[in-house]
User: Fold this.
Amino acid sequence: MDPDDGRVVSNMVCQALAGTPITIYGDGSQTRSFCFVSDTVEGLQRLMEAKNLGLEPINIGNPRELNVEELAELVIRFTRTASRIVYAPLPEDDPRRRRPNIDRAQTLLGWQPKTGLEEGIRATIEWFAQEIGVAGQVNARVVPSRKRRPENLGGGTRVTAVS
Assistant:
């Protein structure tokens, strides 16, 4: 994951680690759901290996929804940064809500995400701290219990099963 990729999690984590203001677009009430890469990959593998599925869409994602301001506060708490939140205008096309319905994934694939948001954010912070060279400056409490490389702690993926 590129520190400058423009995604909400990487932006906030890198801003917090650098001690710069954390940017929230809009008032922060818009919601997002985040699914750790290993969970997403497992869901996609189960989908590819599934037999006799129709063409119905199956969402692979995490239904835990939180608003962007809550995400920023979590990043601030876990990095112990002095960064403060700043607000910028919300882009016109920014969705107000993102929350996948994973009922079909649970029913048809026996899949649901396993990695909690807090664990995923901690792993992401640790990875970015190493990537941008500030790992020694991050409080040891940020370090997750197991090493995981967060290739993408992003939103859900909607896929269509093809028989």
About this structure: The chain has a mean pLDDT of 83. Helices lie at 8-18, 37-49, 68-79, 103-109, 117-131.
